[in-house]
Write a structure and sequence with these properties.
Blueprint lengths: L2 H4 L4 H17 L18 H21 L8 H12 L13 H14 L3 E5 L5 H9 L4 E5 L14 E3 L16 E5 L5 H10 L4 E4 L19 H5 L7 E5 L2 E5 L4 H9 E6 L4 H4 L7 E5 L6
Helix pairs in contact: 3-4, 4-5, 5-6, 7-9
Organism: Methylobacterium aquaticum
Protein name: Methyltransferase
Length: 293
């Protein structure tokens, strides 16, 4: 049986969902959908597959250049490799975590950065750990998440810690050979300052929503990188989500310190126009070193 077939819902379960359970959940105000990853839906004919890969590669090449990064041979070979790899992913994700676009961006970024050490904060089911291992087979990976009970993939060579990354002593890290990846729904200003304190200068953030879009983003961690780097006025940013009101003040001391620590950022294209998959919000961040460079 193919990998894709193995992930399809059992016909009986699907009939039960459509005829009975789906209607019940609909009355309760919920959607009941199969836990099938978005990449299980894909073009099969050559021209359409080639168009998807070429379109994604063109956008990724542009973003890498804008971020001051490069990938030998360009992004196209990496995208083509990822297209085959993701079909074998050991984690199925429908709600939460990275979909195809986010996983592709992370794969290409890690190939371009080629770190010897990766620090991952926010592991969830383990898909991103798997993606980074495919991109960097020899890297040492430190995985942090206070709740590892949801893991579906455990990297045999990674070091797992069921705590926040800020509470664990790490070995001395070479900033030129280390990348920090943050997908943990914690203030990105706080993560910037923690990373700089530990000597990390090369960072990747997921869920980097702009202030005017934060209301539509589940479990927002704020301020995001986009909020830190946006032109500022004296007016606080306010929004409502699920009946709760939030406020962000750009002159908050933590936000001000994080803003000063950032040397450069680049938000990658969400890739939806190229691939048709759900948009993503991955951002590359470079910090000033401790010496101010």
């Amino acid at each position: 049986m193919s990998h894709g077939a193995a992930l399809r819902p059992h016909p009986f379960v699907e009939r039960l969902r459509r005829r009975f359970l789906g209607r019940l959940f609909d009355r309760l105000g919920y959607d009941l959908v199969p836990a099938v990853s978005d990449w299980n839906h894909r073009p099969l004919s050559g021209p359409e597959t080639d168009a998807l890969i070429a379109g994604a590669a063109a956008r990724l090449d542009h973003d890498l250049a804008e971020a001051g990064l490069s990938l030998p041979g360009g992004a196209a070979p990496a995208v083509a490799t990822f297209w085959d790899l993701i079909a074998m992913a050991p984690v199925a994700q429908k709600r939460g975590g990275n979909g195809f676009n986010g996983a592709l961006q992370l794969y290409v970024l890690m190939r371009a950065l080629s770190p010897e050490v990766i620090v991952e904060s926010g592991v969830f089911r383990g898909l991103t750990t798997w993606v980074m291992r495919q991109a960097c087979p020899q890297a040492e990976i430190f995985c942090f998440d206070p709740d590892l009970s949801g893991l579906r993939y455990r990297d045999p060579r990674a070091r797992y810690h069921a705590v926040d990354w800020s509470s664990v002593s790490l070995p001395r890290l070479d900033p030129d050979q280390t990348v920090g990846f943050f997908d943990d729904h914690i203030s990105q200003a706080r993560r910037v300052l923690e990373a700089r304190e530990r000597g990390l200068t090369r960072l990747i953030f997921d869920d980097d929503a702009a202030a005017h879009r934060l209301h539509a983003h589940g479990g927002p961690a704020f301020p995001t990188i986009a909020m830190l780097t946006a032109p500022r006025s004296g007016e606080p940013v306010r929004w409502r989500r699920n009946g709760r009101e939030f406020v962000y003040r750009p002159d908050d001391p933590e936000a001000t310190a994080a803003r000063a620590a950032i040397a450069a950022t680049h938000a990658f294209d969400d890739l939806h126009a190229a691939t048709g998959y759900s948009p993503t919000r991955l951002t590359w961040v470079r910090l000033h070193g401790r010496d101010g460079t």
